[in-house]
Amino acid sequence: MAPSRGLLHTLNAFLRSVRHKPPRRKYSTFSETLSNPANKAQTYISRSTDPYLNLSIEDHILRTSSPSSSILFLYTNRPSIIIGRNQNPWLEVNLRILRPNTDNDTVAPETNIGNVDLVRRRSGGGTVFHDLGNVNWSITSPRLSFTRDKHAEMVVRALRKLGVSRARVNSRHDIVLDQGPRQSHRDPDPEDMHRTPYTSSTLFEGSGGSGGDDGGGIVHARKVSGSAYKLTRHRALHHGTALLNSPNLEFLGSYLRSPAKSFIEAKGVESVSSPVANLGIGNGVFEKAVCGEFVAMYGDGNGDGEGNLEPKIVDNSYLHIPSVKKGYDELRTADWTYTQTPHFTFSLWVMEYRIQLSIRHGTVESVDFFGPGTAMLLAMPESRANDLGLHELRMELLGRKLQDIGGSEWEALAVGMSALRVFMAKKVGGLLGVPGVEGFEEEVDDR
Amino acid sequence: MAARLSVAHATRQLTSCAARRPSPFIPATCQRWQRAPLERRLFSVSAAIKAKQYTEDHEWIELSADGKTCTLGISEYAANALGDVVYIELPQVDMDISAGDAIGAVESVKSASDILTPISGKVFEANSALESKPASINADPEGDGWIAKLQIDGEPEGKMMTKEEYKAFTEEA
Description:
The complex is a heterodimer of chains A (447) and B (173). Chain A is an alpha+beta fold and 447 residues long. Chain A has two domains: 19-339, 2-Layer Sandwich (BirA Bifunctional Protein, domain 2), CATH 3.30.930; 344-439, Enolase-like, domain 1. Chain A is 32% helix and 18% strand. Chain A has a six-stranded mixed sheet, sandwiched between helices. In chain A, strands 12-14-15-16 form a four-stranded antiparallel sheet, with helices on one face. Chain B has 173 residues and is α+β, with helices and mostly antiparallel strands. Chain B has two domains: 2-49, no CATH class; 52-172, CATH 2.40.50.100. Chain B is built from six helices and nine strands, in the order H-H-E-E-E-H-E-E-E-E-E-H-H-E-H. Chain B has helices spanning 2-20, 31-50, 76-82, 129-132, 136-139, 163-172, and strands at residues 53-54, 59-63, 69-74, 85-89, 96-97, 102-108, 111-116, 121-126, 148-152. In chain B, strands 1-2-3-9-8-5 form a six-stranded antiparallel sheet. At the A-B interface, strand 10 of A face strand 4, strand 6 and strand 7 of B. Strand 10 (227-231) of chain A pairs parallel with strand 7 of chain B, so a sheet runs across the interface. Chain A: InterPro entries: aa-tRNA-synth_II/BPL/LPL, BPL_LPL_catalytic, LipoylTrfase_LipoateP_Ligase. Chain A: One of its GO terms (molecular function) is lipoyltransferase activity. Chain A: One of its GO terms (biological process) is protein lipoylation. Chain A: Pathway: Protein modification; protein lipoylation via exogenous pathway; protein N(6)-(lipoyl)lysine from lipoate: step 2/2.
């Protein structure tokens, strides 16, 4: 036995030495491990904080993993705003403060966070803010046995074991912390992940989201985790945030309130905003607890019954996997981030006149003018639009992709003899201009 | 729900079997019973070309009489399973598509689900009424809630099922 083992060992060492591209092996192993039906349960933790990369790895897991397997993936992103697949960035996000240092036409920074990435994810749902104090948990599992609550309940079990007794799953499949005094003398069933001793019986859930306010100024529950899903034929991806120690909660409003919101009428999915809170747990402690619950639910994948599944580490080098790179590049294009936006109209009064833009597939499809005054419902006669320099403005905008018209270009459009045109271009540009998009594309080419 | 479906299914199977099976109580020489099965078969052959076909991904396609175009949508089973639909990403007109492509997506309860086409061709019409009324896909997924009309190129790829086969498929699941 010993000699043959020695021979094998030598042979292996020889093979290792002649293999000139060791990294390749690692990545093909990742895909192979994912797709191998023998690996029923797998856990991964990302050491990258790049939101585009983490979302692409997650998508790779969804598309590559064996249909019967369950995969846990944990990742933490640098400050970024993640909008849902069918959302409108002009409506959901204060775009002008995302790139405070790279563009000279942005407004003065309101926060000290620095650059914030804007990312459109592939799953549904609303807009969330990520930073290093937020750990994202993501579970890809067979679609047939999947429910929208089962993994949120799993995370609540992990939180309760860490002593967070106020955590529960609400009717929107999010995780909230009940606020205020104890509500009942009798403890609810400890296995009930939808109720805590602090759950108010007068909860107003449903359209109001996570039960923010009862009108008397009492906050019943604060959101600590938001859920979203992507479904394919055999697989269901459920991912959620977990606000642990974000230092930026006070700034969320500045980022997630768009100045253009009241001028926009949009198709698609609008976010439901909720009061939020930190859980006050360390990232590592949370990751470990979620892994533990995942293993309790799906086993450790080794079949040895030990239940000690050690998560595998993924990092920036996974960008070398061709399909991850492809997804990464796609997520970073302005086309995916902006052009994917569902149809919307933007309508604004300037003095006695109204300008209305219709944006389809991110492209200006019509520009209409109304007014003055009592003629507000009537389209402005062409001759008058011509006199006011508005027809020219229309021709400059028609057919353009809205995200391509940067702040400086709006400035350039705000010229001419007509004060109306100057004001209109300035105001519209101030609300819809996307700073730093030009730089956005360059960064992609750098890679 | 499942129970009701399977009762309906069983009833339909019973009735169709009964109609096809020549009754042992009627002599074989009876003219009416000799002709009837023949007509029925002819009818069902021509109808099969145009009848709705379903995929394992819960889409349906319905070919036009000339076989050059088809209408595509998601099945009633899928619409029920997805829950309240809040947005439908429609394919762009004139888009070239290959069998297996995602040509759009449905969003319901924070979930995005791709709409796949089982057949290659080109989109010539998208149901723009769904833009302002996405809920109509829940109300009538196999009628007013159709998603796209396609000029088709070739045959559907992958397993296609008749309504009966599809019903059995969803009941197994």
